[in-house]
Amino acid sequence: MALPKFIVGMLFALAIVVGWSWLGGASMGTTLVRVIVCAIVIQAGYFVLVYALIATSPPTPADMARDAERKLKSSEVGEGEKLGARRSLH
Fold this sequence. Notes:
Strand content: under 5%
Number of strands: 0
Largest sheet: none
Radius of gyration: 26 Å
Structural class: mainly alpha
């Protein structure tokens, strides 16, 4: 979901909370608390959604290249492999 679409949806939801509080005869303080709680719940949900999208996305070619480069630079030595001057344990 794009950020502008999220912000419009969030403002719409908060407007509904304000209207519901006003029609219910809630005080200004109660309305403010309801709006703040609603905004926090919406933000937390958006964060979880974006985190889930990132966590479940497949690796990109750049990620795979970076992982391959890290494996080449690692100090792990395979069994039977000799250490050269360029590839030492230090």
